[in-house]
Amino acid sequence: xxxxxxxxxxxxxxxxxxxxxxxxxxxxxxxxxxxFSAEKSNSFLAQGGISAAIDKExxxxxxxxxxxxxxxxxxxxxxVKQLVKEGKSVVRTLTEWGVSFDRHxxxxxxxxxxxxxxRNRIVHAGGDQTGKKVIETLISRVRNxxxxxxxxxxxxxxxxxxxxxxxxxxxxxNQTTIFQAKTTILAGGGYAxxxxxxxxxxxxxxxxxxxxxxxGVELSDLEFVQFHPTLLSGRVPAGLxxxxxxxxxxxxxxxSGVSFMQxxxxxxxxxxxxxVSKRLFQEIHEYGEKVYLDISSIxxxxxKFPGVTMLCENADIDLNKGLxxxxxxxxxxxxxxxxxxxxxxxxxxxxxxxxxxxxxxHGANRLASNxxxxxxxxxxxxxxxxxxxxxxxxQSLFLKRKKMKDEKEIQHKDLLxxxxxxxxxxxxxxxVRNKEELEMAAKTLELRSxxxxxxxxxxxxxxxxxxxxxxxxxxxxxxxxxxxRGSHYRKDFPTQKNDWDSKKIxxxxxxxxxxxxxxxxxxxxx
Length: 526
What we know:
It is found in: Cytoplasm. Its main location: cytoplasm. About 30% of the residues lie in helices and about 15% in strands. The strands form four sheets. Strands 1, 2, 6, 7, 8, 9 and 16 form a seven-stranded mixed β-sheet that branches. A four-stranded mixed β-sheet has the order 17-15-10-18. Strands 11-14-13-12 form a four-stranded antiparallel β-sheet, with helices on one face. Among the domains are: about 230-330, Flavocytochrome C3, Chain A, domain 1; about 410-515, Fumarate reductase/succinate dehydrogenase flavoprotein-like, C-terminal domain (Methane Monooxygenase Hydroxylase, Chain G, domain 1, Up-down Bundle), CATH 1.20.58.100. It is α/β, with parallel strands linked by helices. The protein is globular and about 60 Å long. It has helices spanning about 15-25, 40-45, 60-70, 75-85, 85-95, 130-140, 205-215, 245, 275-285, 300-305, 305-315, 370-390, 420-430, 435-445, 460-480, 510-515; strands at about 1-10, 30-35, 50, 110, 120-125, 145-150, 150-160, 165-170, 175-185, 220, 225-230, 250-255, 290-295, 325-335, 335-340, 350, 355-360, 505. It is built from 16 helices and 18 strands. α13 packs antiparallel against α14.
């Protein structure tokens, strides 16, 4: 079994992982491992941009209020302050590092407007290719300073003396490598890939959350899954039509050409994503309509949105007709690994940043273009914490892994195939949810143990196990929250309840497993 050592091990090659690597690389020996290449991360695919209160008429306080409102005040306010106050600094840093953000002739930033924002504050690059431009810049900066190991799937955390000291990884040939590190950072993205209709790149299966969960690390807010309203309809995988199109004047219309958002929310087509997605769901599934994004009023569409143009042309959509067929799909997950404001988790030596973390910044629904900002802000916070830490104790590691007493052999017959998990999540845990369907899904997804001996299994089985674990945790978290709030909508509990204010559903392996062992009713958790 191959063994590799580093000061800091980072799992994930999106904006959070690469920025943390850049901050740490001058002081630490850093290794980054990714499932595929960094060019296939969700950060690379991000079309919108980075939200920052840059305009002289804007302020971090207004950005703060927009973030809280979009998140239905389920946000951690201190985390949100940390996020929005760093906006200008993030843009300045990325500019200094080489990202060419779009500017007017006078040198000022072109600031776009997206859903939930009351001001133009979205900084973008290459029109709708911000993520691509940022990730390409970061890769070029860290390439010669950091070891990047692609096509490595992190399987399980290695824990010794109640401290994380690395991970077991597997490559595409099922060869196992021990990655040992004094500090491990999880930056592996979210879990929207457990749904069939999703904007996410292949591999967004929540594997780092599953790995953390099996190690006893706390997770929270898993019921909050954001559905983006404008995915390209009828395409698999679904392509994303950036919200910036609506910011430039795109309007949602039905089959008869009638717009339908004007009476729903004061921001109309630029209402927060949860509101727009629920309205599209109603139009499509209750009224039997098809929904289109009317772009006929946008001048120079192809120049402003080259990525969307290519996506539509590849799908044989004639943009000259001015209509793009759209429908909602799983896009971003607010839930994740519980952290403090520096990214520290409940396990010593382990940090989590980016979409896999639950810092509380997004609340029940993420504000548009706060995701790249979150990755950048908390990458810096984690790096600062690690560099200031005096915890440099050396750890020893046996090359031969011993099976823990609480680990069990996996029951293959209980595992669902990936497509069945995705279909089940689309059908029973999508935009509109209810108790009966969630209970049916939970029963189908439940396994005898959530902590099996995975390292000996082939990658195909490990991936299915991770997907099923996160799907079950999501469904049972949805069951517990008996209200509607933000991205979580229960048809049987259609209103937001005051007695659920500031309440989080925190998941712990030890508690969940004891409930299964006692055969207690599904969905009753701490």
